[in-house]
């Protein structure tokens, strides 16, 4: 039953309105601006209608909040009933009172129900709520992910790494069975390759959704549905009965599963301070690049087995992803710092009963406009207006495209030219993977140099000092392309080990370019790093999806040596990029409106 205080800011409160209030079982607390007949009716029914007394003066046209009104009214001592306070401020002419009244009462009925559960004391507003804001208890707070134990960090890293590995494995494993898919569904090479390209296009689009979700609800809450959805669509690919379903499910498997590529690095950044982050990112890079190099080997042995076939490339990937999903549920604790504080605030509220305790993130909202601006509009704008971002991303996208192009090139060399049987012909990918591992080790040595320079600069990072490994890698990468192409085209004169060694140079160059490129972008665009990386991901994944589509026609029509020469020439043209920004990067940052406040 609502108890109301009515104040008319225009006109008067009529006798009919008072009757209507009483007919709706309203307890009238007070009236301001009532006509004589209305006041007479209230006096007549005072004993049954009034349970509150007016304390002090309630002036006409003065709007009162619930709490202010409660201060002015007190419950009669002889009343055992409890009513909610429902102030109705009548701002309409008297003719509109009736229609406004029912709306006012119905729109606040839920507050009446809540108030019935309260005691006589109303929860007064906190004058300075900031004192109840939850924060970390200093730099050594054990709840902060930076201060977690090594055992816990390792378990989280392994979980995030296995999840990313399952995605990268799925991106390339399907390619091993593409010929069988073509034969079963009578489609051409382009359609067979499309299964890989659509998957890569999918996880190129994923950051638009998964990035904001992980910021709003946490890494764990975004990763769990992503892993689960990836498992479902991967098994759907394996059991599909037509080529259309296969291609659609491949795209959605990449789109939904792509969260691991976005959230994985964010989890590492949440747990490791800047001086330790480089090592963690190097290991994560091995996992990301390792998947597309291990997948062709596993896929070839699976597809050549007459009892398995191409469908088992997806079944095996789905099983690995299911294991990763279980580990995510069991071991991936929340690492996003604001969400950790939200969990702390909830625990404190439950423990103390103090409703004023809150975490700042609980008051943070992200609109669709902001999501679009941060993940689509601004990244594209920055990509084509920022020279640093465009050129570094172009180089990064090129080497990423080569990674997926090698899924076609390596079998053409070792199976087509050297006549290795299926499965054995993919083993040279091991050489490329060894090159990635060597490159990651070299990156760690450069990381020590970067820390030393940063300490000498008052612990302020100099973005250009991220580039020396990229300089070295640019030569390794170009040399590897020429080496692989010109030695792999002469199987009758050159031993197969020679082009295999060339592929290791490609792998080493890949990791030496890829990781410093990402770190350089982050250090240049600190405040806008998320948008810059989103632009980088969009272009990089577009190259990764497009390169496999033209790989086979290019190598078959131009021959291996000339196709590799063309790619090597592009790689040579990219060599000046890290050298140029190492020398002129600071001047370029000074002219950028996205980096002006980070220039040192």
Automatic annotation (TrEMBL):
- Gene Ontology cellular component annotations, sorted alphabetically: plasma membrane
Question: What PANTHER family does its record include?
Answer: MAJOR FACILITATOR SUPERFAMILY, POLYAMINE TRANSPORTER 1
- List UniProt keywords, sorted A-Z: Membrane, Transmembrane, Transmembrane helix, Transport
Q: How does it sit in the membrane?
A: Multi-pass membrane protein
Q: CDD domains, per this entry?
A: MFS_Tpo1_MDR_like
User: Where does this one sit in the cell?
Assistant: Membrane
Q: Which SUPFAM superfamilies match?
A: MFS general substrate transporter
Official protein name in the record: Major facilitator superfamily (MFS) profile domain-containing protein
For this protein, the record's Pfam families field holds: MFS_1
Statement: the UniProt record of this protein carries the keyword Membrane:
yes
Record-linked PROSITE patterns: MFS
InterPro entries (alphabetical)? MFS, MFS_dom, MFS_trans_sf
For this protein, the record's Gene3D superfamilies field holds: MFS general substrate transporter like domains
Q: Where would I find the Major facilitator superfamily (MFS) profile domain in this sequence? A: 156-600
The entry lists its GO molecular-function terms as:
transmembrane transporter activity
Q: Where are the transmembrane segments?
A: 156-179, 191-210, 222-239, 245-268, 280-302, 314-332, 388-407, 427-446, 467-484, 496-518, 525-550, 562-582
